[in-house]
TrEMBL record:
Name of the protein this chain belongs to: Phosphodiesterase
SUPFAM superfamilies given in the database record: HD-domain/PDEase-like (SSF109604)
Compositional bias segments (type: Polar residues): 103-114
PROSITE patterns to which the protein is assigned, alphabetical: HD_GYP
Region (Disordered): 82-115
GO molecular function, one term: phosphoric diester hydrolase activity
InterPro entries named among the record's database cross-references: DUF3391, HD/PDEase_dom, HD_GYP_dom
Amino acid sequence: MEYRIAPEDVRVGMFVRGFGGSWLDHPFWFARFAVKAKHLARLQAADVPYIVIDDERGIGPTSASPAPIAPRAAEICEVRPKNTRSHGGAGGGNPGKRRIPSGSGSRTRNNAKTQTRKLVARSLRIMRDTFARIRAGRTIELGTFEELVGDIVSTAGHCPRTLIETIRLKQKDEYTHLHSVAVATLMVNVARQLGRNEREVYEYGLAGLFHDIGKVRVDDAILGKEGSLSAEEFDLVRAHPQDGFDILRATPGLPDAALDVCLHHHERPDGKGYPFGLAGEALSEVARLGAICDVYDALTSDRAYKSAWSPVDAVTAMWGWDGQFDRELLFAFMHSIGVFPTGMVLALDDNRLALVLEPRSDAHRSRLLVFFSTATRSALPAVEVPIGKARGSCRITAPVDPADFGICAEDCQEANLRSADWTCATPGTLAA
């Protein structure tokens, strides 16, 4: 069970699952860890309204601890500058309004980027050290990974685009190690899109982090080879799901999802994957998501033998590969990253259709052109609508075949080509 306790009531042996207040206020970049003596002073002095502990993974509240602390509205965890203030009265603007000092938003974004880069650098060190430990015949230190996944979950919840883009810029020689961090981040992101609870989100992230651990038994020269692999080399690479499963099976405390994704992330719904040729419902949701996140990051990364594809090119290709991915989960994945194949037509929950446009040159997210009413089955004045957080009730629901509404593909293509010349109203925003 989880409890909210005051910072001064934290004790060694408790397990921290989160913090109240802004994520910038608490003294740790990570948010899930067992409390040790070295943490205690900083935790007890933390400038946060409460700390969340889990008595199933550590000791519970002591008898001297107060009752669980109920969060107040002002303590909702969110990213915002700490030096905002209310102004009222003469010359103070509207009562109760917050004025953000000039440059504070930029400082917050820069701080998030700095912290994200630190997380990625630490992730790279941990993955390299883990590969070295396994090659030396030592075991995986699960506690290190629980802490790392907790950090990834926390960061992906606050600034997912920053984290995803930072990892996507990895160098070719970092691919083997940071690829798993990228997959973990994408798994966390899509798990939240699907509405999974926080425990499942954490397990999906851990599964992503360990999915390629079997590559520790493949020579680096093979993994980084610029040319085509020989048949023998290809067989060694194809053995990594089973090799990884064998390594993880010897690690106590791992959730089933981690073992599942490791063993099955190269399986396909059509049964043409490996190592077992499983198909359809024989593959769990988490394994099918693992396959999607794995391939997406591989396509959008620079490799020894290829240059990175753009996010749009990657999802377009993946959507077109019949039988390789679960279509509903692939659509949820695209939803989670805000990128859809250009030219796809999407249904919105307010009885409108929108055409997916190319992202602008300075952005990676797709744009939408709302152009048709399904209620009246007639064209609407074209309005460009960016994908982002909701400002209303309008949400993307599903991909549609425009022919079902009497719209020919040529019309959609022409609209796409001419979209830059269409008059756009003040953009609204759709939830992705």
